[in-house]
Write a structure and sequence with these properties.
The chain is mostly helical. The chain is built from 11 helices and no strands. Pfam families: TPR_19 (PF14559).
């Protein structure tokens, strides 16, 4: 996704807490996805089953991939009816999957996380290769501060679209945040790997440069951090994180003398 996601900074280490902000409702991750122009789904469309079914079934509908658990008879019946309804309302299941994923992004933009999660689940049910289904569920988990699940969902999406540089940047951003919370250097290493690959695929990804600058700042490699700051500046000056910039200047003056 390009996805509709405002620029955001995240926590890495407690010592640099002023550099970061935690996820808040209404925020996505790091990229910028456009809003779908398709009209909002109506109550009569397939998959609208609010208040229908057992409490357990209702809970599963807003869990990533329906909770990834054995299906009950109720769930199987629901899926059969839902797929049949979609077959009657759409040209094919791929089209239906894209429709429900688009609705998921719409609801995410309104901070309706449960409704968004349900729509992404329906998109996945229709097409397990729909990257947006995993990406959207990853964003939902991120907004709920369920970072382990967010990383897993985004990783599933990346396994399908392994050259999507924007998705890689989103995954790396969450891995950086997870590093702050768990202090596991594996997360930092994974984030660096994903950002490096993202920049190889899409060198003009200003957001990826800013995230890489932040990562290098965390590693105390201030020279490389400045390199990425300047690359981001040349691509999109508005992408620069002013808090990071001030912290970096305090550690090492700008070698190019642009920022003082």
């Amino acid at each position: 996704m390009s996805i509709r996601i405002p620029h955001n900074s995240f926590l890495l280490i407690v010592a640099f807490l002023p550099l970061w902000t935690m996820a808040q409702p209404g925020q996505f991750i790091s990229s910028a996805r456009s809003v779908s122009s398709t009209s909002r789904d109506k109550a009569a469309l397939p998959g609208d089953a609010s208040g229908v079914g057992t409490e357990s079934a209702q809970a599963a509908r807003v869990m990533p991939l329906f909770g990834e658990r054995a299906k009950s008879g109720e769930q199987i019946e629901f899926e059969i009816n839902f797929l049949n309804d979609c077959d009657q309302n759409f040209s094919n299941r791929g089209e239906a999957s894209q429709f429900f994923a688009a609705r998921g992004w719409d609801y995410l933009g309104e901070s309706q996380l449960d409704t968004a999660a349900y729509r992404f689940n329906l998109a996945w049910l229709l097409n397990e290769k729909n990257v947006d289904a995993y990406w959207g569920l990853g964003v939902v988990c991120y907004q709920q501060n369920k970072l382990d699940q967010a990383i897993r969902m985004l990783g599933k999406g990346l396994a399908i679209a392994d050259t999507n540089a924007v998705l890689m940047t989103d995954l790396a951003t969450v891995e950086l945040m997870q590093f702050q919370q768990k202090k596991d250097p594996t997360h930092l290493a994974d984030a660096e790997t994903h950002l490096a690959k993202a920049l190889t695929i899409l060198p003009d990804n200003a957001t990826a440069h800013i995230k890489m600058a932040l990562l290098q700042y965390t590693k105390a490699d201030y020279g490389r951090a400045w390199e990425h700051i300047h690359q981001a500046r040349q691509i999109d000056f508005s992408s620069i994180d002013l808090t990071l910039l001030n912290e970096l200047i305090a550690k090492q003056p700008d070698p190019k003398g642009v920022f003082k």
